[in-house]
Amino acid sequence: MLGTTVLFGISGIFTPIATQPAWMQWAGQAFPPYWLGLGVRSALLPANLAAVEIGHSWRPLATVGVLGAWAIAGLVLAPVLLRRAARREAGSSVAARRERVLSRGI
Q: What's the whole-model pTM score?
């Protein structure tokens, strides 16, 4: 949870990213929360408020491109990583965990 909090803290969701130090702006723009926030702000806020954004623009093409790249990367990497994680997990430990959960009487 701490990583998520830090990620959203530097992404410009809570404060304008343009007011942060340059290294934090670069780090914030490297992850999807910044681009999601930028897209939502561009859809909901008037055009004159783009002045507080980096480059004084909503950057709609960059927003779509970056979010599309993250989506494609997730679609490609998720099956590989999930398969690898499933191979590492022994079937008996999964069954034991399942039995513990079921015995709690959810």
A: 0.78
